[in-house]
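Check these lines:
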Amino acid sequence: MDRQWWQRLHNFPPLIWIILIGSFFGRGTYFMVWPFLAILLYEKFQLGAAEIGLILSASAVGAALLGFYVGALSDRYGRRNMLLAGTAINFVAFALLAVAQTLPAFILAMTFCSVGRAIWEPPASALIGDLIRDKQSRELALQFRYFLINVGAALGPIVGVWAGLSAQQSTFGLTALSYLLLSLAFLWGFAHTVSGRLAHKRRDSSVSVRSTLAVLRSDQVFLVVIVANVLTLFIYAHMDSSLVQYLTHAQAPALVELISSMILVNAITIVLLQFPLLQMMRSIDVNGRIVIGLGILAAGQAWFALNPVHWFAGWLGATFVVSLAEAILFPTMSVQIDRLAPDHLRGSYFGASSFYSLGWSVAPLFGGIVIEWWSGPALYWMMFVLCGLVYALYRLTGRLSRPDWPEPEDVVEIRSGAVQPQ
């Protein structure tokens, strides 16, 4: 990072740092054991792969649908209330996971985990836009949050294995504790900072889910962007479980070592290259960055399709290429939503972006079917073609219309009660 970036980071309000640090610790403790949840379910209840997959997928789809509704509620009732509710539910969910002994209790706790995450994510992203008015500083905050989330996700499993905690149910108590501390930090942050008190007051009682849906339907650009990004997540997700299924079916040599190495390459690429890539592309607009990321993602899909099953280094190279695309695309998507969202509907727009996870949720099922009926290369050629469709959707947005929003100053006045909406 250059000196200007460090200066911007230094000037972030305390609440922004609570979001950033909370995202790191929350995600890190979450990934200490969450990837090993399938092992716990298998060992405790002898569930099959399909049953475990159904439980995990159902919770992910439910979270995606709930996220939009929560985002709209945060516009109506304020970010503070929704963030506190999300952290409280996460605390209860992970505390229950730490002590659950029956399958219904596990399913209930996992449902609460999905609900808590859906409630926490949209208002957290929207609050960054509420508190940071400078566009470049806001973009840096969103990029830095994604960076810290990835660092937490990368370090969590490593720390868990090193400490002997992985696949031990009691470790969920650490995650519960992290969310309890985060909830207390939010209470302090909103109460003791001027920006936090102003953000808490900024709510628009005229916003409802029905009115928000009507507005979103009229924003053709945003709707096409949502569809394009759902497809992007769907494409990227095939580097996860679908690739493992492909390599397993193809009997790739040294499979466990290969998968572990690919996970490590992905984590290192994101952590080391995200900000250098941002620095290189700072003169390119958001859509331009996404198009570049899509091109790299398409190249990665072609590499996966063409790579010989026994070429170990080739799989790592393809993973590196797709990870580069991830480092460009995913944080840029958050910046993109922030740019598209009007101030008074920022929570609703970030809530609608929760639909992205639908692409991630459907990918394992689709990938498994294609690999079973056809082949792994066929799946990745399909994804290569799908990258072209996503590019076409982005080109289409240049010819679509958007609603005429009120000026930001007018929205702030309405929120604060200085004027009444007409």
